[in-house]
Amino acid sequence: MTYTDYTTGEPVADTKAPSGPVNERWDKRRFEAKLVNPANRRKHTVIVVGTGLAGGSAGATLAEQGYHVVQFCYQDSPRRAHSIAAQGGINAAKNYRNDGDSIHRLFYDTVKGGDFRARESNVHRLAQISVEIIDQCVAQGVPFAREYGGLLDTRSFGGVQVSRTFYARGQTGQQLLLGAYQALSRQIAAGNIEMHPRTEMLDLIVIDGRARGIVARDLITGKIDTYFADAVVLASGGYGNVFYLSTNAMNSNATAIWRAHRRGAWFANPCFTQIHPTCIPRTGDHQSKLTLMSESLRNDGRIWVPKAQGDTRPANRIPEDERDYYLERIYPSFGNLVPRDIASRAAKNVCDEGRGVGPGGQGVYLDFADAIKRMGRKAVEAKYGNLFDMYQRITDEDPYEVPMRIYPAVHYTMGGLWVDYDLQTTIPGLFAIGEANFSDHGANRLGASALMQGLADGYFVLPATINDYLARHPHQGEVTDEHPVVQEALAETQDRLNLLLSVDGDRTPDSFHREVGELMWEFCGMARTDSGLRKALERIPQIREEFWRRIKVPGTGEEFNQSLEKANRVVDYLELAELMCLDALHRDESCGGHFREESQTPDGEAARKDDAFAYAAAWEFTGTGAAPTLHKEDLVFEYVHPTQRSYA
Amino acid sequence: MKLTLRVWRQQNADADGAMSTYEVDGVSPDMSFLEMLDTLNEELILKGEDPVAFDHDCREGICGACSLVINGDAHGPERTTTCQLHMRSFQDGDTIDIEPWRASAFPVIKDLVVDRSAFDRIIQAGGYITAPTGSAPEAHATPVPKPDADLAFEHAECIGCGACVAACPNGAAMLFTSAKVNHLNVLPQGAPERETRVLDMVAQMDEEGFGGCTLTGECATACPKGIPLVSITSMNKEWLRATRKVAKR
């Protein structure tokens, strides 16, 4: 039986989501959830893996509630988690602009933006909580942009027609993360959080069907240790680095969620990846990562390419009537602010037509000449100054004088561990929050919604729902290293690292990462086909086989060894990539960021097949390279009725 | 481009370190400095040698992980983070010295990687506003004058990389500490803890073994985020004010 011969198992249902009117469900769930007596909370230990917006806010809040939190991050400080790099902003349905925004509209925009592949209950809760997040962050001292009257400023983002994005210049992620990090720091000082920086989770410990701890490696000494708890929360981020080149941080990785998947947590919609339209094009083979330019640039910048193929004149020598402002032309009502998936695909299309600009023709212009004329250079500087500086530093071109060149790049993964309304995975006691789960963005995430979801999960959702689990299922007795399951997990981890160190082949971890990444970009990137995906599925096991024959990792496991860290992450990419391709192959429709060339409308837009695919695909692991089992969660739309998305 | 690199190699915290010399060829001016080091490391791995360890993560100039002293300057010749430094800032044939942050409060872990956890402990001492989740008033309940919000933001831009300490002849952490003190102390939300914050953070800073400040200004010159030197003066003022106010209590 080959990998593609997957079987379809029992459907999966979100049993925790209450029924009734969508706007009452969260209240209802919070009331029905059992509480843990405050005096008993310190007897419960919760492990949190990751310190980004989701993990940082969850750790701080759980500790404030009285739980004993043991928290991990691979970075040298919790303040450096990759949420820090988010630039543009955070959505909230405050309606401070009086422009017709509401919780219901944010809910509607998010379900529609996700191309009808997200759960209504979750998304509505997200929209409700959005307003509390802004209050919370302001109280922490997050320096959001303000108007002269002292009130908060907002801006617009792609896929919506209201101005609901709160921001802190181009560093919103950093400022929100520092807010969470500071709250976390307060709890560390109070002794409520035991923080382990430079420590990476390498396996999950599941005893009697419940998550009871993790195996983790101290990245300085190389020591492998076990940590036990009453519940484990994964806030380890997305898996975009499977593509090698992405906007993710270099060390962001999929190991925590993939190891949990191998231990029984189902993985939902792995093929739903977001390709961000406004990134700086690559310059050569040495490229180690791609840099995003905030989508907020599309508010004032105009995207264009030459009308003629192969036009190599410099931008300023191409007259106005020989330029094609293709987004404004194809989507007159949303123009340059169409959702990310649509903007990315349109850029790919014009480049495929031979109208791309810059080296290799892999780029389109993002032009601020009109904005500078309209607003003045000073105003453009105030709004986008740091982004322009960053662009100039990387490309050595002055974007005030010549248009920026941009090209799509892998940015975010909507898929992730399957979770119910309580954010609990299919392993009782294992929760997944933030980008690590699959729940809120469907097949495409709207701009400025990742920060919103990370903080909603961490500050408000998980701290309410985890009580219910801990109250209903108190653990009897301690787990120790002597437990056979723990021994086995430790031995497996140790064996894997030893094997990596002992092969002594002739290829570096990076060379394998690059190879699988390029394969994924070609066949599981912006456009996917049946034949391409099958090619990738044939190739991935070969790369895996070659990896274990030819990998070379210098040094030992008992020291600071970055090559070993990297190689171990690549092991997991080589399995995850296969599942992503299979998911993309099985989903024989286009939706959001998943574009199957076989399924498009006559004018080239993504054509969904709601009759066949209005479900979340949750995959169950059955062994490396073995055909997984598919469990379908039917998606029901009671409020936002699926239509062909139209931004024209 | 062809370059000669002289790199600080140190097996671990307890071992002695030394500069080692490497040649790298085929460097493109469009490479970032860290991509140039990636190239070197790929060669070292294939030769069976230990690659050069260095901290890095976002490679977008915001996470604050990267931390190299290049030709004697923290983050090198341009005013930016190491990851945003490109090889076009160098000439073919150059010899480049690469060292870790040099400060006794930042002990070396391996090669170019240092331990900056002292910064975390300074924040833990008081670099926060006590606002437990759920207790926040409506965001617009307290308007913040734009100049104050902008000033807070200017200080909040600190990425905690430690270049200020590495550049300081005394190994002082005044710019880092003052950036957080000022970020929170100029906001109305930070006012209730204004005194304890500055006193506790400065006390922790001293305890960590950072040097004293003689206002040489090297910190602000090296800061990739442009935290101004006046930040230190403001913190000193805050500290004096707090000392006197607390004494009166």
Automatic annotation (TrEMBL), chain A:
Membrane topology: Peripheral membrane protein
Gene Ontology terms, MF aspect: electron transfer activity; flavin adenine dinucleotide binding; steroid dehydrogenase activity, acting on the CH-CH group of donors; succinate dehydrogenase (quinone) activity
Name of the protein this chain belongs to: succinate dehydrogenase
Fumarate reductase/succinate dehydrogenase flavoprotein-like C-terminal domain location: 513-647
EC number: 1.3.5.1
Gene designation: sdhA
Major site of localization recorded for this protein: membrane
Cofactor(s), by name: FAD
Gene Ontology terms describing biological process: anaerobic respiration
A single cellular component GO annotation: plasma membrane
Region Disordered: start-end pairs: 1-23
Organism for this UniProt entry: Streptomyces aurantiogriseus
TrEMBL record, chain B:
Pfam families, per the entry: Fer2_3 (PF13085), Fer4_7 (PF12838)
Name of protein: Succinate dehydrogenase
Record organism: Streptomyces aurantiogriseus
Biological processes, Gene Ontology terms: aerobic respiration; respiratory electron transport chain
Record carries keyword Metal-binding: yes
Required cofactor names: [2Fe-2S] cluster; [3Fe-4S] cluster
NCBIfam families on file: PRK07570.1
Family label: Belongs to the succinate dehydrogenase/fumarate reductase iron-sulfur protein family.
Domain annotation 4Fe-4S ferredoxin-type: ranges: 149-178
InterPro entries linked: 2Fe-2S_ferredoxin-like_sf, 2Fe-2S_ferredoxin-type, 2Fe2S_fd_BS, 4Fe4S_Fe-S-bd, 4Fe4S_Fe_S_CS, Beta-grasp_dom_sf, Helical_ferredxn, SDH/FRD_Iron-Sulfur
Taxonomic lineage from the root: Bacteria, Bacillati, Actinomycetota, Actinomycetes, Kitasatosporales
Keyword Iron-sulfur among UniProt keywords: yes
Domain spans labelled 2Fe-2S ferredoxin-type: 1-102
GO MF, any single term: metal ion binding
Keyword annotations from UniProtKB, A to Z: Iron, Iron-sulfur, Metal-binding
